[in-house]
Amino acid sequence: MKHPRDKRRDSRPQPSRKGAPAPMPTRERAERHERKVEQHAPARQDVPVEARSEPRKLARREGALPAERLPLILEVAPNDDYALLDSGNGQKLEQYGPYRIVRPEGQAIWLPALPAKEWDRVDAVFTGDTDEEGLGRWRFPKTPLGETWPMRHDGMSYQGRFTSFRHVGVFPEQATHWDHMARLIEEAKRPVKVLNLFGYTGLASLVAARAGAEVTHVDASKKAIGWARENQEMAGLSKKPIRWICEDAMKFVEREERRGSHYDIILFDPPAYGRGPKGEVWQLFEGLPAMADICRSILTPKPLAVMLTAYSIRSSFFAIHALMRDTFAGMGGTIESGELVIREKSAGRALSTSLFSRWVAK
Ligand SMILES: C[S@@+](CC[C@H](N)C(=O)[O-])C[C@H]1O[C@@H](n2cnc3c(N)ncnc32)[C@H](O)[C@@H]1O
Can you tell me which atom of ligand 1 is nearest the CA of 281? Predict the structure, then answer.
């Protein structure tokens, strides 16, 4: 394998610059296109687009704004389950359980700190090559690997998977949110209801269920829900109360509001662009204000937290901070906002992955 320093001569496709004149601060830049593809079934041309109800009429919330804490940088350090071993020249070298993996990383504009031989000692490389059959887009320099492999997060088993969209089924930077949420659930010493919107492969849902919460998990992708259910089995949490719902997240929260359902903790980690199962279009900048507003109105009288992550384009944590602070006016508590970063093992550089803003009761 070529050292990442040689990447400019590498014939492998680079992250697309199309439509992205300004640098985007998050993983969204490199993965935006793949995420559209990942919406697979919902995005198919032959699926009729089902409109949602009338757009919500938003009114400014009354009351004092929550206290604020920013910038808050939440960091994932290398650990036994996951480590960012090195990064540079638009790529990252990661350890996921037993496997060493190389994937594109648009943020890594610096030079790698580890020598080329370390980048050569890998199990899988995301190539970006199109292959309709099997495990296209991944190259296995040592031995061909199966599609899935056992992974762990904090003692909990789940399935890693080489997807053709470069993802492996987990966003490790989310782990700090999960720890925080688990602490809130355990310390509450009462039944806690968690809503996980855009839940993907379900790790946040599993962490919440393990901590004792009753969980509702919503995602538009049948495939992702199937994978999340497998993860529940693997984690030995099949008896824990998790409702798996394949639905458009916006439609779901609108219905929960009409029904009068309430949650103590809400996580929402929306993509910049996505599709519901019936073709409903999700656009981050258009949908976020209404979704945040509805999330507020479906909270229990004594809620614990609302956590928003944005892998947005041309945005800053100040933007989602202002939205969240206005939305949670009159609720007391604090809005904490900043970035989720992963600390690299080799040279200690912080790799920014996303923006976040969260309301916490205490
Ligand atoms: C950023 S990922 C979520 C990552 C997840 N929170 C985690 O930490 O693993 C985005 C997810 O949103 C889902 N999605 C996209 N559009 C959606 C929509 N309109 N309604 C519900 N889910 C949607 C996708 O299927 C995908 O699983």
Answer: 19
